[in-house]
TrEMBL record:
GO terms for molecular function: alanine dehydrogenase activity; nucleotide binding. The lineage of its organism: Bacteria, Pseudomonadati, Pseudomonadota, Gammaproteobacteria, Pseudomonadales. Residues 149-297 form the Alanine dehydrogenase/pyridine nucleotide transhydrogenase NAD(H)-binding domain. NAD(+) binds at residues 134, 198, 220, 239-240, 267-270, 298-301. Residues 4-137 form the Alanine dehydrogenase/pyridine nucleotide transhydrogenase N-terminal domain. Transmembrane segments: none annotated. Its EC number is 1.4.1.1. The keyword Oxidoreductase applies. This is Alanine dehydrogenase. Substrate binds at residues 15, 75.
């Protein structure tokens, strides 16, 4: 199969869909891999590294899309990239379609087969292709939040861990999944006073077991959320309902009642964000202030630590890329219900229920399209 790796073009996005070692693996199975010149240069993977791995280097994204049947990326296609997508293409990347009507419309119109990393599952119902980036973003969220609490960025001027004689900052983490647990570990490490809110008792039990009395856990209700949020210096938004738009758990009224200079890091912004006041920002301009509350809402946080993130992502995507290339997308999807869970759009139909509900399309069972 012909596999294509375009250079990422989102703001300060330096990750790359395939590293040379992944390319080498696919070429070893007889596939042709077309890599856009400079695709990995920013994180130390030169064009020569790719050539030695067996890739064919091409000058522009147009040529990658022209040559390839399977397109492997990191972030969702930007408008200019979407114009190059054809029915013969299979796209394998993060999509986050529920809050993105324009992208959904374009993918549906393209006729392409679009598989979202973030909804591929594993045997335990987890999200193995989202997990490594959630580990990264969870860890980064506390760094970002600590930075935003500094006075010159509009923050309260509070040090997360406090100092002897002065209380530490209060950190509330909404959603105790992969992002939430990694955020908790960092916040505990820095000496903050940490509360994690989740609606899944198993998650809360696991957190209690892991962190003991270093954190407090709270069952998520409108009341507990309200209390925790308005008393916090730093709130991390890390909820997820797979494929769906994030629930707006932090209302405008709660933001109004938060202390001046407190901070919301809404990691869930890639699914639309869990605060009513959240809107996506970029690494260039990561924060804005509403009612005195600093909002950090960067939708591609792991792009800032692109080398670590790319390696972690390739570790988990490579087996699926190999299956798609070796068997062809149809057979690979028929053979593996976990990969099939990643299928969001195919042949002009939306094949993921939560995405269809959020974007106004009729849901089509992917099995009817695949003839399984
Ligand atoms: N901005 C960025 O750069 C990145 C964003 N993310 C996003 O972070 C979000 C979280 O991802 P993960 O931690 O991997 O998901 P996860 O599935 O591991 O955890 C989500 C948690 O939210 C909880 N939850 C759902 N509804 C809730 C409610 N009403 N109240 C309290 N808790 C609730 C679930 O029980 C679950 O424990 C996702 O939207 C993901 O796409 C992930 C990586 C990078
Ligand atoms: C998951 C995601 O949105 C990212 O890694 O950028
Ligand atoms: Mg206020």
């Amino acid at each position: 199969m012909k596999v294509g790796v375009p250079k990422e073009i989102k703001n300060h996005e330096y990750r790359v869909g395939m590293i040379p070692a992944s390319v080498h693996e696919l070429c070893g199975h007889g596939h042709e891999v077309y890599v856009q010149e400079g695709a990995g240069a920013a994180i130390g993977f030169s064009d020569e590294d790719y050539r030695q791995a067996g890739a064919r280097l091409v000058a522009g994204a147009e040529e990658v899309f022209e040559q390839a049947e399977l397109i492997v990326k990191v972030k969702e296609l930007q408008a200019g990239e979407r114009a190059m997508l054809r029915p013969e293409h299979t796209l394998f990347t993060y999509l986050h379609l529920a809050p993105d009507q324009a992208q959904t419309d374009d993918l549906v119109q393209s006729g392409a087969t679009c598989i979202a990393y973030e909804t591929v599952t594993d045997h335990a119902g987890r999200l193995p292709l989202l997990a490594p980036m959630s580990e990264v973003a969870g860890r980064m969220s506390i760094q970002a939040g600590a930075h935003c609490l500094e006075k010159y960025l509009g923050g309260r001027g509070v040090l997360l861990g406090g100092v002897p004689g002065v209380s530490p900052a209060r950190v509330t983490i909404i959603g105790g999944g992969v992002v939430g647990q990694n955020a908790a570990a960092m916040a505990v490490g820095l000496g903050a006073q940490v509360t994690v809110v989740d609606r899944n008792m198993e998650v809360l039990r696991h957190l209690d077991h892991r962190f003991g009395n270093q954190i407090s856990t709270l069952f998520s209700t409108a009341h507990t959320l309200d209390q925790a949020v308005i008393e916090s210096d730093l709130v991390i938004g890390s909820v997820l309902i797979p494929g769906a738009s994030a629930p707006k758990l932090i209302t405008r009224d709660m933001v109004r009642r938060m202390p001046e200079g407190s901070v919301i890091v809404d990691v869930a912004i890639d699914q639309g964000g869990c605060a009513e006041t959240s809107k996506p920002t970029t690494h260039d301009n990561p924060t804005y202030i509403v009612d005195g509350v600093v909002h950090y809402c960067v939708a591609n946080m792991p792009g800032a630590v692109a080398r670590t993130s790319t390696l972690a992502l390739n570790n988990v995507t490579l087996p699926f890329i190999a299956a798609l290339a070796n068997k062809g997308p149809g057979q690979a999807l028929r053979d593996d219900p976990h990969l099939l869970a990643g299928l969001n759009v195919m042949a002009g139909k939306v094949t993921y229920r939560e995405v269809a509900e959020a974007t106004g399309y009729t849901y089509t069972n992917p099995e009817t399209l695949l003839g399984t």
